Amino acid sequence: MALMTSSSPLSWIGFAAAEPVFADTARRRFQLYKHHVLATLRKDGSPRVTGLEADFRFGELLLGMMPDSRKALDLRRDPRFALQANPGPDAEMNDGDVRVSGRAVEITDPEFLARFIEDATPPEPFHLFRAELTEVVRIGLDGDSLVIESWRPGQPLRTVRRK
Fold first, then answer.
1. What is the pTM of this model?
2. What does the alpha-carbon distance between residue 103 and residue 131 come to, in Å, rounded to a whole number?
3. Mean pLDDT throughout 57-74?
C-alpha cells in the first residue's frame, strides 16, 4: 500500500495507484448496475438527488449529463458531489455498499471530448465531468461483523469492524 502525502482530491487513476485493490473493488461494485444515485447541492444549499450513469474510462470516473440539466448546473456552481452505487434488487448487499465523494470538474478539452465521443458514443450534446475524489467508502458484512472501509487522499485505507 502506497502512502500518499497530498490531501488534495485525486482522480480515479490516482486513487487506484494509492489503493489498487480497494479501487478495483469499488469500480466493480459500480459496474454491477448501470444507474446510480448522484447527490449535488442546489443554489440554496439543499441537497438534490438524481439518477446517473457512472463511466470508468481512460483511468477516470466520468459523469455524463444532458445539457443544462439541473445536476450539471448544480455542479458548475458548486462542484461537490456524492455518488452512491446502486444497491441492487434486494436487501442482501453481497457486494457491499459503495459511495464516492469529491469534486466534479467539467471537461472542456476538445481532444478529450472527441476521444470520449469516439469511444463511448454518448447522446449529444452533453456535459462531461471528471470526479476528483475526497473520499471512497465501502460498507459490507463479514459474518456477523459490519466492515467499514474508507479512504481519503493522503491517508491509508482505514478498516473498522463492528459486531
1. 0.91
2. 6
3. 96
